[in-house]
Design a protein that fits this description.
- The strands form 4 sheets. A 3-stranded antiparallel β-sheet has the order 3-10-4.
- It has helices at residues 2-16, 34-49, 63-72, 82-89, 98-106, 128-134, 154-158, 163-170, 182-191, 205-208, 232-237, 239-245, 254-265, 271-283, 294-329, 331-346, 349-362, 373-396, 400-408, 413-424, 426-443, 456-465, 468-496, 499-502, and strands spanning 26-29, 54-57, 77-81, 110-112, 122-127, 150-153, 177-180, 197-200, 211-214, 226-231.
- α2 links the parallel β1 (26-29) and β2.
- The protein is mainly alpha-helical.
- The protein is 59% helix and 9% strand.
């Protein structure tokens, strides 16, 4: 018993002892597209110029996730657009003017800067050759082609200012509409899999792919002036940061923003360098920024990934084993337990992250960024099913004669469980833990969706920039780590599985 308690304590220490200090200072967020990341880098450099340390949590996902992080205090500021604020964040509230927006946002503890200088409205785009062949110049021309297949980002499909209301506004007949990642939609368009996509007016890919932008001839899309949203308490904690950030107001033209986007997406330079050079040219802000080497990136991403895995997998083991035992010993409750952990596996990862964020924020824990409790909790829940199921299967699969022998010897129930039943079920239990570990390593890449780092970060960036090398920079190490974890658990069988259960079955004569 003492040995078991010691093992549990050591596992808890391994799971929860912090490996690094919490990030202090100002926390900047950005969404999962190039322009937002560049603007986020500009805000980070401006914040640092004012004095405090600034950390940029890049590519956090869509509007709902990033704004929720702002409200909860996980980030202090991020770049946004007036059209998104009006149609998505303040949907259903009076927000036609900037003053109305500011008033509604202030009720949520959020302040808004003046526009930065460019309007990045939504547009619909087609490959120029196909648009000309079909005679499509305006959005209303799409009504003549009901068989066209359209592909939009999942966020655009659900937004108030997105596809649903656009279809009604124009009376568009298309029903073959596919949701996909925004950056992947350009590839699908080029391959001919879809005929039209939504784009942002300052997208560098518009020129790169030779898109024909369809005229919004019935004036559906509102203006999307770029602004900065920041928490009202930021002005109290770091007033110099707010003053520094607001230097960006009115200084960024659509042409300059498109040029910056193009430099990043054509791999001329990273977002941090492009942002630093722009601030030097426009505001005279001299900041030296060095790109990380491949070795530096691999080391930091590996440590971040392992941090997510250890914080989620070890608690999943400590929780999953008792739940599996409970499911085996109390069949009535067991079915409910197995059903509950099974349902979690059916929830899409992004949906689970969004659902967990308010809960984590309510508990006053970190919901985005490195060490994100939201990512850790999601990974823990995803890891439970194989551990609980295999523990249950291993215990209920013990031969009746073994149970009867242990009972006939008069062994107490707890002693029988710890010294007879769990050892007999150990191969099944270890197989479940091994499966959970491999799943955990793979799913940990999703932590990048809320800034938790790990190997998912280069994968997301590679998808956004259409850079196969970056995608492989995350995917290959994640696969190698999963194999190492599997081999590690295979090797550990000699310590956790009784020798008699490890002996191969003898072949018959």
């Amino acid at each position: 018993m003492k040995r078991g308690v010691l093992i549990v304590l050591l596992l808890l220490v391994a799971a929860f002892v912090p490996l690094s200090a919490e990030d202090g200072g100002v926390r900047v967020g950005s969404k999962k597209f190039t322009e937002s990341v560049i603007l986020g880098e500009m805000l980070t450099l401006l914040a640092e110029e004012a004095g405090p340390r600034a950390t940029h949590y890049r590519e956090l996902g869509g509007t709902k996730l990033v704004f929720e992080a702002l409200i909860s205090g996980d980030i202090d500021l991020y770049p946004e657009y007036t059209g998104t604020i009006r149609e998505e964040i303040l949907s259903g509230e009076p927000a036609e003017s900037l003053e109305q927006m500011r008033s509604a946002l202030l009720k949520r503890g959020v302040l808004m800067s003046e526009p930065l200088g460019f309007n990045n409205t939504y547009v619909l785009g087609m490959l120029r050759e196909r648009a000309e062949a079909l005679g499509v110049e305006r959005v209303s021309d799409l009504t003549r082609h009901p068989d066209l297949r359209l592909g939009f980002s999942n966020e655009f499909l659900d937004r108030e200012d997105g596809w649903r209301n656009l279809r009604e506004h124009y009376g568009l007949p298309q029903r073959d509409v596919t949701g996909m990642d925004h950056d992947l939609s350009y590839r699908q368009l080029k391959l001919g899999a879809i005929a039209a996509i939504e784009a942002y007016a300052t997208d560098a890919k518009i020129a790169e792919y030779g898109l024909k932008l369809l005229e919004d001839d019935r004036g559906y899309f509102p203006e999307y002036q770029s602004v900065v949203l920041y928490r009202s308490d930021l002005a109290e904690r770091f007033p110099s940061v707010v003053d520094s950030v607001r230097r960006l107001e009115g200084t960024v033209s659509a042409e300059e923003m498109m040029r910056c986007n193009g430099r990043v997406e054509n791999s001329d330079a990273g977002e941090s360098i492009v942002a630093a050079e722009y601030l030097a040219e426009e505001l005279g802000l001299s900041r030296s920024v060095a790109e990380e080497t491949l070795r530096d990136r691999l080391v930091s991403r590996t440590l971040e990934h392992l941090d997510l895995v250890r914080k989620s997998l070890i608690p999943a083991i400590l929780l999953g084993l008792p739940l599996g035992v409970l499911a085996a010993k109390l069949p009535g409750i067991g079915q409910a337990v197995l059903a509950a952990v099974g349902v979690v596996q059916t929830i899409p990862s992004l949906a689970l992250l969004v659902v967990l964020m308010p809960v984590v924020a309510w508990l006053d824990l970190r919901s985005v960024g490195l060490g994100s409790t939201t990512a850790v909790l999601a990974l823990l829940l995803y890891s439970l099913l194989p551990i609980v199921r295999n523990t249950h299967a291993g215990l209920v699969g013990i031969a009746a004669e073994h149970r009867e022998t242990a009972a006939a010897l008069g062994l107490p129930p707890l002693f029988r469980l710890l010294r007879v039943e769990l050892p007999l079920a150990s191969r099944s239990i270890l197989a479940g833990i091994k499966t959970a570990a491999v799943i955990n390593v793979g799913f940990a890449t999703l932590g990048a969706l809320i800034g938790a780092g790990g190997f998912g970060q280069p994968i997301l960036t590679g998808i956004r920039l259409n850079d196969t090398g970056l995608i492989l920079e995350g995917a290959v190490p994640a696969a190698v780590l999963a194999l190492l974890v599997q081999w590690g658990f295979d090797w550990s069988e000699r310590f956790f599985v009784p020798r008699g259960l490890r002996l191969p079955a003898s072949s018959g004569a």
